[in-house]
Input
Amino acid sequence: NKLFSPFISPPPHNLPVPQCYRDLALVSRDGLSTILTKMNQILMEKYLKLQDTCRTQLVWLLREMVRNGIIGIDGNCMTFMKQIAGGDVTSKNIWLAENILDILTEQR
Output
């Protein structure tokens, strides 16, 4: 879980997120299923409380995991889509909807 913390922490952690993902993928023995479970839990329980930088990092992580074809990432995509509020036209909600749509259209 220490390798996952930079994705849900504000930037002063001094660790580049792409390098953290690379390290995480290298040391994972379970196909990142532990990380997927933790990520899903955070998305369901704490997404609205996360700072914008953390949200951006989680969307970036989702994009990379989808690109790499991580087994089980579809559940996290569904959880992200549940965070899109219907009828909410705030910039944060539109940003999330556009990013999730971009991720899914890239991987048709």
Q: What stands out?
A: The mean pLDDT is 88. The helical segments are 17-27, 33-46, 52-67, 73-82, 91-106.
